[in-house]
Amino acid sequence: MPVSCWPPARCERPARFLPFPQSGYNGGRMDGNNRAPAARLTVKHTLKGRPMRVLLVNPKSKLPIDTRTSPSLGLAYLAAVSERRGDEVRVHDGDVEDRPVEEVAREFRPHLIGITANTTQVMSAWREAARLKAVLGDVPIVIGGPHPTVLPHESAARPEIDIVVRGEGEATWEELSERIEKGADLAGVRGITYRRPDGTIVDEPDRPALDLSTLPRPAYHYFKMDRYTNLQPTVDHVEGYSFPIMTSRGCPYRCSYCSQIMERRWRMRTPEDVVDEWEWLVREMGAAEIGVLDDSFNIDRKRVLRICDLIIERNLQHVPWIMINGIRANLADEELLGKMRQAGCIRTAFGVESGNQHILDTIIHKQLTLDQVRRAFAAAKKVGMETIGFFIIGMPGETEETMDDTIRFACELDPLVANFSIATPFPGTELYDIVKARGRILAETWDDFVFFEGKARFELPDLPAELVERKWREAYRRFYLRPHRIARTLMRKQTWLQLPRTLRMAWRTVVTGAL
What we know:
By secondary structure, this protein is α/β, with parallel strands linked by helices. It is 36% helix and 15% strand. Strands 2-1-3-4-5-6-7 form a 7-stranded mixed β-sheet, with helices on both faces. It has a 6-stranded parallel β-sheet with strand order 8-11-12-13-14-15. Helix 2 links the parallel strand 1 and strand 2. It is globular and about 70 Å long. The N terminus is likely disordered.
């Protein structure tokens, strides 16, 4: 994701009811009465004609056991934007780096710092920003990403943060860098939230949606590529580099568990632009695997078919590719999936979410039927494509019976991987609003807003946390401990290539029910 991701639907301030610990540094008040002073946002006097030094930071994530680590595509785009400006760039990815970020900053002495953060990263981002402030003093620190986009004032009120970038980050980052480099005023920079010298917080207007054709190639040469896993390490063993790619942004649907940070707008890159980058990844970057990161890859059927045709025409189909976030089951059929398979796609995911049609229609608003899901899975298997199913346990309105429906449906579909998540009320979602109105959030800090640990993060009067957690554990056991599933797993070559990882995942997920 870019350092900031897309216009927010609204701004709420859950810190009013979430008791965040101070973690040894001044967390700042959230009542608006004790604003931190604004930093001096200028580096003009220190450059004297030299390139501006920019440090881009991906805070350490709270990752599930044996999960993938991959380079941040958003930071790779921002690094490319800074490089195009002539800046000297350094990227620090906390998930793979051995050294603390403040040690790197002390050596690099950046003039500008950008930090990305989703909800589960944001407190880590604040902690790293505080350490960087302690080392670097007045160097401007900018934060963006999904969480600051939805709750910009929450970060802008903190003394360690100078500017919040809302929305897509690339164009805003470029303009912001120029203003800071020149020592110019920040007023009028679209897509930012910042503090004035008197401590008041200013929201500049949203930035218009970006023309995706203007994006530079992601600057992966700033990342330590040999430290990342392949894209789905619990399933594959890939020798070589794995790269993500973005072919479109946004989603026209409105699922209740998903933040509406793109206002239901879907934008695409042209097939030619996409495959030009695809070829660059294969021919020049040495990609051994490519993962499509789109939220809604197959909205435009003709575009997908054209992308696949171009991949085949340029003889790139020998490099396997996968759909990381999945595709819409109602827009997938045998022809489309067959063409994707011919072009090298070995695996796709489908967001199934629930095996109960009432929950899909009235709670999740998925605009999807169970029969459409059945047909999509059958078509994928027919053309020789492996499948992953994403399922959610514990949405509002659920009962033990509806959760059983989901488990049974997962077993019926029988994908290669069934990923069961506990419903988590992220800010900016309808689910979050429902929980605030009708129940209580059990998570104490944003660090706890993870959906892969088997812990319920909210509770409603008719949906106790204990029931949800029990059904989540039951889902994994009922799906993976079927005799034919065990045999299927043992027969896969990848199981034996990654036997230690397989055994750890089996023990923590299926046996103990805790990742």
